[in-house]
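Reviewers of the previous submission asked for a worked example of the structure-prediction workflow described in the proposal, so we include one complete record here. The input consisted solely of the amino acid sequence. No template or homolog information was supplied to the procedure at any stage.
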Amino acid sequence: MTSMAEVYSTLIGGKAGEGIKKAAQVIASILMKRGWYVFQQDDYQSLIKGGHNFSIVSYSPETVHHGYNKAVLLVSLDARSLEQHINDADTTRMEAIHYYNSDAVVQQPCITGVKFIGVPFSTLAKQLDCKPGNISIAAIALFCKWLGISPADMQSIIRSEFKRDVDENIRFAEAILSVASEEHLFPNVAALANPVSNPRLISGNQAIALGAWAAGLDFYYAYPMTPASSILHYLALKQSTHKVYAIHAESELAAANMAIGSVFAGAKTAVGSSGGGFALIQEAFSLAGMVEAPLLCILSSRPGPATGVSTYTAQEDLDFALAQGHGEFARVVAAPDSIQHAYVLAAELLCLAWEYQSPVILLTDKHLSESTCNINSFPQVPFADDHILCADNAVEPYERYAITPSGVSPLSFPSSDVSPDKVIKWNSHEHLASGLRTDKADAMVAMKEKRLRKTETLHQALKRYDRVHIYGEEGIPIFAYGSAVMELLEAQKYCRKPFRIIALIYLLPFPSEELQMFRGEAAMVMEHNITGSLAKLLRHELSLHVEHNILRYDGRPWDPIELAELIMEKLNA
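From that input alone, the workflow returned the following structure tokens.
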């Protein structure tokens, strides 16, 4: 067990359309500016209005890798939220406080260690003609009171965080404070001594978008599909400042084919979707393999098959990603193990794609894609233009698929010169070095062997990056990838027996050299699916003896303390 700092959580529950996530983001921003590390995660149904949504903000003086389900401050804006979260108070550190909408609840609940306080949220909102989507301002006001923030500072926060209905929101927040003013609710949770300057609250998808942009991304194509959609939305929002053109195509296949067209013209391009949309992209992915198009593909997983559960998390697409595209050609599959690393990996993969003219897949999942944490600064990342084998020094005439020892051909793009010797030919049919179509046996052999050499060259080049991250120095190894690593990092703080986290970053090609020390060793594997796809891969590649496979497949992430207890049970079994 590692040393632990105090960790607190605030939970806000209500209906879709009531601004739950926005309120949580404001609370996270308040905490960041006062020196706290934060982690925000959202649980929401696929509904525009109604249903039940909730957001959790966990915060600590030390880095928080993952959120906690038990909260010291809870705000339930409707009866369903109170009912669902009535037992989610954390009473281990202080008396927990649970505010609830007294207009929607007949009888005040009673649980030892929890102070339930009814507030007429609906009545106050109606009296002030507040819009339904603004009722979550109550959670911000109550959190400010709980943290000891003055009413004047609370007003400043609302003015800076909201662009619309500012005066209305302030009046509603003040009304909430007046109702709760007689309560003495200030625990010993205040500003830290040394707040970090310029903290930024970043989601996994935003980190992916920014990392690709830092490496030179020009175009992003997508047909919206949760949980990849926010990459499109974020880049569209930043289009004027970051000069990345975000294109909403009419379908996933159209997006991928348009992306390959942009690559042909010399633009650094990415395309993204979830599993169902990526199934449609497969055809274009294989096209990218044949024409040797450097294409960054982002696959953000959710439960399947088909529509599955569109707003929850899963790691069910590993086999799908590893086998993406038909035929034999160079490809890479890699998964970030944190929101911070998503930034770095997106840049690495874009550069690899352009250096080796191959499609690559960044594999993530809903929980990593949509959760947020504070990042104080971004590391330097490679730039794609520095890694392209340009055609400037190529022999004349230029050949798009020139046979080379490395398998990587010089790369050139169309220009205004349309003379016969300047025409650039990309061909989805098997082709000659010039790009002309061929069915000849010797030509087919030569081109397939060229692509194989490129695959081997690419796989060797990957060794310059960290293909595996290891956290911890002793104890049984627990293998994981993606957001499961974040869960394990936080659980590591509570487990009474030490364990090592073996985070696989590059999954294809499999990092055999880095993992030889674990060959045949007893280990655990943790993943969010029912069939244990990562465990099967490890058995095949490493002859790993998987003593326990920790599986979860209900679409929800683990609570770190619950996960630590489960690991202890497995270790003692």
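Residues 495 and 568 are 7 Å apart (CA to CA). We consider this example representative of the routine output the project will generate in years two and three.
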